[in-house]
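Title: Prediction job returns without error message
Component: structure pipeline
Severity: low
Priority: P3
Assignee: unassigned

Description:
Job completed but the reporter wants confirmation the result is attached to the right record. Sequence as submitted:
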Amino acid sequence: MFNIKTLNSEAEERAAIVQAVATIESVVQLQESWTEKALSDLLEQDSIDLMVVMSTETDEVVGYCLYQVVFEQAEILRIGTRPDYQRQGIASLLFAELNTHLKEIQVESLLLEVRADNAPAIALYERQAFVVIHKRKGYYQQPHQPAVDALIMQHVYR
């Protein structure tokens, strides 16, 4: 079983959660994972929040969603699930909780960016009613590899 919670301001718990998220980041975001310091710095901004999924069995962070809300617009900055917990509905739980929260605060739409070659993520987002609204040609570039487009996807709350 899993519990979902939003990061609170208790320093000790906050630091442990941010460290756990940075560890997951280093495994699931292969090109440019965000460090513990980068995540901590981002979370200093009032507009940025972190939602995490905790395993009730191990009390460990197994998934996360870092997002920003500016007026009526929200954007997912990062979302990830620990590899040993993937394909167990963790991302769907995060989306359900995030959608409920965003509707409560009257957000009109939610954006995210995804690599065009990340078929599993695109399929997940499409199941969550996201649609592609823009393509950034050749956005992701790695040495000695072909450039990959970035897809901007949007979910509109009605």
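Comment from assignee: result matches the submitted record. Residues 26 and 33 are 5 Å apart (CA to CA).
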